[in-house]
Amino acid sequence: MNDKQNPWEVSWYSNEDLPDVLLANQEEYGNSDLTQASYINWVVDKNPNGPPIFPVVREKESGRVIGWGMLVPLSILWKGQTQKIIIGFNLMVRKEYRRQGASTELMQLGFADAKSKGYQFMAALANSKSTSVHRKMGDLIGPVIPMVVHPIDMSSLAKSFIQNPFLRWIIQIGWGIARPIIFHEKHPDIRKNPIEIRDENQIGVEFDHFWAKVKNNYDLILVRDRSFLQWRFFEMPLRSYKVLTARRNDEILGYIVLRNTEIRGIKCGLVSDFMVVPGKDGEAAGLLLLNAANRQFRETKMQLGGGLMMTHTREYQIMRKAGYLRSPRKFAPQDITLVAHPLLQEIPSTEIERAESWFISNADHDAV
Predict the structure, then answer these.
(1) What values do phi and psi take at 291, rounded to 5?
(2) Per-residue pLDDT tens for 72-84?
(3) Contact status, residue 128 vs residue 334, Cβ threshold 8 Å
């Protein structure tokens, strides 16, 4: 399959390859989740949908892994029908082996295997650099996923971004005027039908009941059942998430997942996932959950709250009511773009590319 002059060949990952993969990731990414064995093992061994499709590139002489791609199996709901897809978690080839066709052959092997196993398409949330690679490979390039933000500590943010003390003072004056108008907490009237906010320490069967009520609200959405949420937020060994639910008589009306992190020197409270039931109950639950999230961010001294959310969703509208604003692209850490590679063609490409088809949040992104 390779040109005989190539010093590499593509094959499949085995447990013996873990040290090579971690070392290559360390050199490429520095200290990150990808350099930890527990992260790789979480993807390989814990995913309720099964192990990843994991092609690698090896040096022919030494057998050393010098590139790899991880395609993670998940379930997606398309117009009410559960379908199998793969999510691109990472693609990396060592610098000295790039521009030799290794990444192309790597993905061709992975896609062929995925197609033979009945996966509908590959999807990924790609940064700007990765998006250009996917474009060259002929993949579908979908919408840029909007980021919504909520200032938590404007004084600290101004100090981080603005050197001029006079301008910082002006911003503080403006913030003092805008905060009670735009960013104040919205308190829904729940006196007749109280809603309780709970801090969850496990994902119970009630989450499956909640999923059954919300799953048909969007044309394309990753299956967010109990097993997925448990794996994504409670079994991930390197990150700490807080899961809050809004309940009435133990019935879940909505949930929100929070994580504190630092992005480009800014302490960020991430809304990692956020879903509510339709109607007034969902709106009330969503506002209460966002109020609780913002209090949590303030208590933990975050500077900014925010997350990914598609603008056509009810969750986005609730976030706007709660004072979250769509971030201008130049202020976002980076563009996150939906890319896809069709495999079986049963789901039309036009449907995959259309922003309004999707529900997407940070939960769909492997890095956050």
Answers:
(1) -60, -45
(2) 999 999 888 899 9
(3) yes
The H or E element that residue 93 is part of is strand 81-93
The pLDDT confidence band at residue 225, using thresholds 50, 70 and 90, is: very high
Residue 176 has pLDDT above 60, yes or no: no
Query: In sequence order, what are the residues at sequence separation of 6 or more whose Cβ sits closer than 8 angstroms to the Cβ of residue 235?
Result: 42, 46
Amino acid at 268: C
Q: How far apart are CA 185 and CA 287, in angstroms?
A: 8
Chain centroid to CA 121: how far?
18
Closest CA to 354 of 28, 101, 87, 79: 79
Enter the tokens of residue 124.
């990924």
Q: Cβ of 308: how many Cβ atoms within 10 Å?
A: 23
Treating both helix axes as pointing N-terminal to C-terminal, what angle do 279-299 and 314-321 enclose, rounded to 10 degrees?
50
Q: Looking at residue 179, what is its pLDDT?
A: 56
- Give phi and psi for 9, each to the nearest 5: -150, 155
Cα distance from N-terminal residue to C-terminal residue, the chain: 36
Contact 334, 323 (CB under 8 A): no
